[in-house]
Amino acid sequence: MTFKAEFVAELEDCLRGHGVVPVSDPGALARFIEYVRLLPEEHPRLRCLEGVDQGSGSFWNNPAVWWERVPTFGVVHTDCGALLDDLLDEAVNDEVDVLEMEIRELPG
């Protein structure tokens, strides 16, 4: 399964009420799901996360992604492109933080 397919499936679960987070504005989330669905697989935003699997804390388990951005979409933000950018930024920032921590822990 591609990242895009996994991402859409997770968002659809949230929309149906049994995903990882509650949804404040189901209509807005449905628009975001359709926005992601219509992006080509090779879209740069999706390619950035292609290697992210379900075990990655940088995206799938990141509270800033799933508990701050997704539930309030439509209430706080309404721009689908901006939401996707925010999600990518959070994942990249988290990865950088993890790498910096690992570098600090290296001997010498």
Descriptive tags:
mainly alpha, 108 residues
Structure description:
By secondary structure, the protein is an all-alpha fold. It is 58% helix and 0% strand. The protein contains five helices and no strands. The protein has helices at 3-16, 26-38, 44-47, 63-69, 80-104. Helix 1 (3-16) packs antiparallel against helix 2 and helix 2 (26-38) packs across helix 5. The termini are far apart. The model has no long low-confidence stretch (mean pLDDT 84).
Number of strands: 0
Q: What's the N-to-C terminus distance?
A: 41 Å
Sheet of most strands: none
Radius of gyration (CA) equals: 15 Å
**Which geometry do the CA atoms define?**
globular
Helix content: 55-70%
Order of helices and strands: HHHHH
> Approximately what portion of the residues adopt beta-strand conformation?
under 5%
Mean pLDDT: 84
Catalogue the unreliable spans.
Answer: none
Structural class: mainly alpha
> Count of helices?
5
Task: Tell me the layout of helices and strands.
Blueprint: H1 3-16, H2 26-38, H3 44-47, H4 63-69, H5 80-104
Helix pairs in contact: 1-2, 2-5
